[in-house]
Amino acid sequence: MANVSVYNMEGKEVGTMELNDAVFGVEVNEHLVHMAVLQQLANNRQGTQKAKTRSEVSGGGRKPWRQKGTGHARQGSTRAPQWTGGGVVFAPVPRDYSFKMNKKEKRAALKSVLTAKVQENKVVILDELKFDEIKTKAMVNVLNNVKAEKAIVVLKENDEKVVLSARNIADVQTSLVNTINVYDILKHNTLVMTKEAVQAIEEVYA
Questions:
Q1: Are residues 67 and 133 in the same domain?
Q2: Which residue intervals make up region (Disordered) (predicted)?
Q3: What percentage of the chain has pLDDT greater than the value 90?
């Protein structure tokens, strides 16, 4: 089991914590991580783009000029793709881009990125994260104290003061144990978690 230092909000080491190898010490499966990122990006797509094909554009029912003898190239319709105002070749139509991954694959992908962050020493564990008031500067100070840049902060339960304090900081995101995902973890350099959040993750995914 990996031993990770636990810090307080001032950035001082106040102890250590053993991480469960079933969650933070698995074999990293890059293929599943890649699939999980693709799935999230695909599922976020609206898929509402639309353009008209030559069969949907109005007009063009009549042959613009006779087949031979005009000196022009032969044409059958003014709504063919080569005409201004004509239809689009292979026009996009509304579609659903989403696809499914098995639950076991999703869990394995999440464990892989958590393990990778531990291996890269990009995990910071706080003994607690609580504020008396909503204050962006207080959150900036905590992140600076633990040297966390471009961080995702994982909480066990929704804490409005923490979430709103972090909301205005560029490249910082808050997330809950039940909403963390592969894409968000990969997008940020540092994974900041409270002790409670780590224990909750181990309970859910071990």
A1: no
A2: 44-85
A3: 83
3-state secondary structure the chain: CEEEEEECCCCCEEEEEEECHHHHCCCCCHHHHHHHHHHHHHHCCCCCCCCCCCCCCCCCCCCCCCCCCCCCCCCCCCCCCCCCCCCCCCCCCCCCCCCCCCHHHHHHHHHHHHHHHHHCCCEEEECCCCCCCCCHHHHHHHHHHCCCCCEEEEECCCCHHHHHHHCCCCCCEEEECCCCCHHHHHHCCEEEEEHHHHHHHHHHHC
pLDDT band at 181 (very low <50, low <70, confident <90, very high): very high
Q: How many domains does the chain have?
A: 2
Alpha carbon dihedral 103, 113, 47, 179, in 10-degree steps, equals 70
Query: By the 8 A CB rule, do 11 and 194 touch?
Result: no
Report the residue count for the chain: 206
* Cross-strand partners of 155: 176
Whole-model pTM?
Answer: 0.83
pLDDT digits (tens, 9 = 90+) for 98-134: 999 999 999 999 999 999 999 999 999 999 999 999 9
CA distance 1 to 198: 14
Domain that holds residue 79: 47-96
Q: Are residues 177 and 105 in the same domain?
A: yes
